[in-house]
Amino acid sequence: MTNSDQTPLPRTAVAYGITDPVASARAELKAALAAIEVKANVPRRVEQASQRGIAKARVFAKKNPVGAVAAVIGVAVTVGGIVWVIARAASR
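Above: the chain sequence. Below: its structure as tokens.
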């Protein structure tokens, strides 16, 4: 059974059945570099996390609109309070 019979491998995986040691080392290096790129690409990870958060917020707002409005008001009051405290401390 070859990989073509299965689902495609992720970029961070090494193909099974490579017998040539040089090809195996190259495949392992390629997979390791891909894994490092996936872990180290912070902007992409932040973007994906924010997209997941936005999707969750939309689902929550659709299921519970009153709770969503209350959450937005709560966040606005909290941010406003923090800004007020910082401005008051800076003015003294």
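The helical segments are 21-40, 42-63, 65-91.
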